[in-house]
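Lab manual, section 2.4: Encoding a predicted structure.

Procedure: take the sequence of the chain (201 residues), apply the prediction step described in section 2.3, and record the output as structure tokens. A sample record is shown.
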Amino acid sequence: MYFQLRKLILWPRNGAAPRVVKFEPGVVNVISGASKTGKSAVIPIIDYCLGSDKCAIPVGVIRENCSWFGILIDTLEGEKLLARREPGDQQSTGDMVLVESAEVEIPETITDKTTNVDTVKRAMNRLAGLTDLDFEPGTENGFKQRPSFRDLMAFTFQPQNVVANPDVMFFKADTTEHREKLKTIFPYVLGAVTAKILQAR
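Recorded output:
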């Protein structure tokens, strides 16, 4: 799976031009700056745009001044712009914008949603090749349910609370069901087994 973050975009409430943070593909990108300048909000913004259940973007200046958050990703299918509305007093909102093209032009403003978070999650599942995996259909057992793109976030993010914790290796792996699901899909993520073999197990 080819998946590269190219840009992080913030659309201000006051109608000003969007703030864009660019990332170079294929290399480690280092974001530096003084304390309380928004560095720790980068991972929560990316996670929120990738369909997290809750908005973990810190309440304060960024939330108060932004109407939409977005990321531009590069995939084998071309570029995709994923933008999600700032949720206000809610924990999250399903309002999203999805733009797909060989090269996506960042809009100056976003006025309304064009899709929802469930549709974006399905698109990401397809992109990750997880649409046909279903271990035990109909089960309510968390770690035996269909794996999703969201499960792969555990291998993608390493925020400071994970880096500094000697007892935690993966992002949001603090529940038993999530840890067990990660153990199940880990060989597939590494490319050691195919989807067919993983499901047979």
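Check your result against the sample. The mean pLDDT is 86.
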